[in-house]
Amino acid sequence: MTTRQRATGAIVAVIGALGVTASGYLDWLGGRDATEIPLERLFQTSSVGTPSSYWNSMALALAVVGLLGVLGALLLSRFVLILGWLVGAATLVLWLVMSANDDSLSVSVSDLQSGVWICGVALLVFLVGIIGMGRGLRSRVDAEERVDPVPPPAA
User: Fold this and answer.
1) What's the domain range around 93?
2) Residues with Cβ within 8 Å of residue 92, at least 6 apart in sequence
3) What would the pLDDT profile of 4-24 be if each residue is shown by its tens digit?
4) In a domain, 147, yes or no
5) Which of 1, 60, 91, 101 is the most buried (most CB within 10 A)?
6) Do 95 and 37 touch, CB atoms closer than 8 A?
C-alpha cells in the first residue's frame, strides 16, 4: 500500500467524518437538529427536555467525529479514524434505539429527517475511506524485507 493510496483513503474518510459533523445541523426528527437534542437522550428513553448549551447537546458527539476524522487523516492513523467512526456509529445507533423505545414518541422510518440519513451515508463513506487506507505500511515493508532462514549445512 503506497502512501498515495493511504492518503486517498484518509481524504475519503475525512469527507465522511465532516459529513457526520454537518448532519448535526440538519433536522433529525420533528424539525429538531442535533443541537436541540440533549446528549442524555443517547442513554435514556424518557424525554429529557432541551440541552442547556451546545456542550450538552448530541451535536457535541458529532463534532468529536469531525475532529477525530481530521486528526486521523493528518496523521494517516487508522486507529484514530476508527475511533472517530465508532463514536459516530454509536451516536447514531444509540439515538435510533432510544428514540424507538420511547413510549411518548411514535417513530417510524418515514419520520426520520435528512440529518439522520446524511449521518448514516457519511458513516458509510467514512468506513470506505478507512478500508481504502489498507493495512499498515509497516506490515508490507516487513513482509518484503523478511528473509527465509538458511538451512544448516548437511553433515
Assistant:
1) 3-139
2) 116, 119, 120, 123
3) 889 999 999 999 999 999 999
4) no
5) 91
6) yes
Domain count, the chain: 1
User: What are the pLDDT digits (tens) for 59-87?
Assistant: 999 999 999 999 999 999 999 999 999 99
145 located within any domain: no
Query: Is 82 within 8 Å of 65 (Cβ atoms)?
Result: no
CA atoms of 102 and 114, how far apart (whole Å): 21
What is the Cα–Cα distance from 27 to 70, expressed in whole angstroms? 24
Query: How distant is the alpha carbon of residue 103 from its chain centre?
Result: 28
**Which residue spans within 16-120 are E strands per DSSP?**
27-29, 32-33
Cell representation of residue 71:
486528526
- Specify whether the CB–CB gap between 68 and 81 falls below 8 A: yes
- How far is 7 from 21, CA to CA, in rounded Å? 21
Give percent above pLDDT 90 in the chain. 48
7 in a structural domain:
yes
Cell numbers linked to 2: 503506497
| 149, part of any domain | no
- The answer to whether the beta carbons of residues 136 and 82 sit under 8 Å apart is no
